[in-house]
Amino acid sequence: MAGRRVVTICREGAYYVLLLAFIVGGATTRDINLLFVLAGMMIGPLLFNWRFVVQSLRRLSISRRLPERIFAGRPFRVEICGRNERRRLGSWMVVVDDCVQPDFADCESRKRDLRPNAGVVLPHVPAGGLVTAAYQVTLPHRGRYRFGPLRVSTRFPMGLVKASAKLKRFERVVVWPRLGQLAPHWLELLDSRRLGRQTAHWRQGPIDGDYYGLREWRPGDSKRWIHWRTSAKVGKLAVRQFEQQQNRDLALVLDLWQPEAPRDEDRGRVEIAVSFAATLVDELAQRGGSRVTLALAARQCGVWSSGASALFAQQTLQRLALIDAASENRLAETLGELMAEIPLGTQVVVISTRGSQLDHIGRSDSFAGGHRRQRALGSVIWLDVRSEEVGRVFVWE
After folding, report:
1. Which strand ranges, in their side-by-side order, compose the sheet holding 347-352?
2. Domain boundaries in the chain?
3. How far apart are CA 357 and CA 336, in angstroms?
4. Are 300 and 121 in contact (CB under 8 A)?
5. What would be the CATH architecture of the domain defined by 1-175?
6. 3-class DSSP state for residue 256?
């Protein structure tokens, strides 16, 4: 064990030592040999407990194993592994305490000694063996967190003396935003805005959609679609019929504006907006096939575009976990950059913490003289997280 071992007397051990001192004092003042014998017998267990706990932590390595993906508000397991590198003596009742705190990378409060707030017990780590235990924790907010240090201790077998060591095992993780659920009204909202507009889409794969029935053969149908068993029964060719699918492009703009002196409800709206965007990206990645463009109008700005995939979702959730709201109005500039990159017909959805700013954006320098951008603003879906419409399309736990 790399940490420095410290041996202390427990509360029970302190009473034991006090009683031992009383016996030794009585034996000295009264010159009673039996009390000297009793004191000697009592010293033995104390020394044995001290020696045993020191040896129990010797050559005992402790490690931590974290999951790859951590979401805010969802419980997850942290595994603690104990490996005994000794060949003969095992370790019993090893207590491992862990600290889980937000990462104070730029804060003076990080220099304080953090108290353990999670832990496990390893009942027995045999010689040359590996034992694993786990504790469950739920982190309420997105952002960076720090695990560590680890504190290892044991009082076995008598509980009189305690040996402990502090291990500098630190790990930093990024907790992704809390995910909610999209209601069926979300697709209805998109479809209602797409009517009468040109939409950007492409077909997926050689077969256009999912198989859902049979029909008669028509000129131009592929021979691969023929269902020979049904054709033999009815005496004429029958082919499989597939549901037509269209993969649509979607541009998502996350507008995280808050006043310079935000209140708790302002911070709450920011978290709802981030969770809404994270849920939408995760849902699109699971379906796949479409192309997603994400634009951020916050303290961290930028525009990213990629096919809806698991990798894109992970990178996006990583960015959303660390994004901060801003009091500066950067939406017009971000939306203008987005309009210049996306193809014509891409549906633009703005998730914002405030009411619609489209009229103000249309008069800004980023859209002055741009007829194509002005026309695209007319089809933008603006979703204010304070509105009832968001409550119908998104359920936030």
Report:
1. 302-307, 291-297, 250-255, 347-352, 381-384
2. 1-175, 181-200+247-395, 209-242
3. 13
4. no
5. Sandwich (2.60)
6. coil
Q: Which two tokens stand for residue 178?
A: 């809390």
Q: Are 394 and 381 in contact, with CB atoms under 8 Å apart?
A: no
**Do the domains at 1-175 and 181-200+247-395 have one common CATH topology?**
no
Strand partners, 135: 78
> What SS3 state is found at 27?
helix
Global pTM value: 0.78
CB 167 within 8 A of CB 99: no
CATH 2.60.40 fits domain 181-200+247-395: no
SS3 99: strand
Tokens for 79? 């595994």
* Triad 317, 323, 329: Cα angle to 5°: 130
Quick: pLDDT tens for 42-92.
Answer: 999 999 999 999 999 999 999 999 999 999 999 999 999 999 999 889 999
Range list of β-strands (E), the chain? 5-9, 60-65, 76-84, 91-102, 118-125, 130-137, 143-154, 161-167, 171-175, 181-182, 201-202, 211-216, 238-242, 247-248, 250-255, 291-297, 302-307, 347-352, 381-384, 394-395
3-state helix, strand and coil shares in percent for the chain, rounded to the nearest 5:
35, 30, 35
Residue 98: which of 46, 31, 151 has the closest Cα?
151
